[in-house]
Design goal:
Distance between the termini: 38 Å
Oligomer: single chain
Shape: globular
Number of helices: 4
Structural class: mainly alpha
Largest sheet: 2 strands, antiparallel
Length: 86
């Protein structure tokens, strides 16, 4: 059980860098949350753009890069939705 919990606690390589990259560039693109609902097309578009950069920086596979950037993009979208609700 300790091994399972330890695996869950690890952050993927480059997650924080991907999140800051998406935060910096998403202001220039479509918002991730529109009228309190997630804009899934905007989320996917931002994740793909960041995945291209992330893949070049970390020399990871496309699947790994997209996984990291999607996770980071969803974190930002959830934070934006929470911020707009308050």
């Amino acid at each position: 059980m300790h091994a399972v919990a330890a695996d869950r606690a690890k952050r993927p390589a480059g997650l924080l860098a991907a999140r800051s990259l998406i935060a910096a560039t998403s202001a220039k693109r479509r918002p991730l949350v529109v009228a309190g609902a997630y804009d899934r097309a905007a989320i996917m578009s931002a994740a793909i753009a960041a995945a291209r950069i992330h893949q070049g920086r970390t020399d990871s596979t496309w699947g790994e890069a997209l996984s990291v950037t999607l996770k980071a993009t969803w974190q930002l979208a959830k934070a934006a939705r929470t911020a707009k609700a308050h």
